[in-house]
Amino acid sequence: xxxxxxxxxxxxxxxxxxxxxxxxxxxxxxxxxxxxxxxxxxxxxxxxxxxxxxxxxxxxxxxxxxxxxxxxxxxxxxxxxxxxxxxxxxxxxxxxxxxxxxxxxxxxxxxxxxxxxxxxxxxxxxxxxxxxxxxxxxxxxxxxxxxxxxxxxxxxxxxxxx
Length: 162
Prior knowledge:
Blueprint: H1 3-32, H2 40-45, E1 61-63, E2 67-68, H3 78-90, E3 100-101, E4 113-118, E5 122-123, H4 126-137, E6 141-146, H5 153-161
């Protein structure tokens, strides 16, 4: 083996060793990370100011369909707690606005991620369908959550509406 190949091999081993040490310390750090539960009141209170600046912050809004059963707010702590955990684990700034979002309004286009959950069937009216279609084609992310976890009237609404 010539001198250049040997030097390259040694440098490669040193880089792999440093990467393994970094990975091990990250894994160890993740294993030591502590989390804590927050109360419902704390989750709802966290950064819930409607006038808060949302630029450069992670956010997700819950959809409040105009038509349907009105069961869109089944767990008001779900989004605040999820964003709280994202902030705690990553340090990324978050904005929590737990008010229901009318997807038939221009407000939809201010959001990157929206979330819809229910126990019952739901549907979008014409305006909501038009705006959701435009928003999704522009790159919006829609998360759907069936509360029953095994199929329900909520799931039956997904195909015709989405």
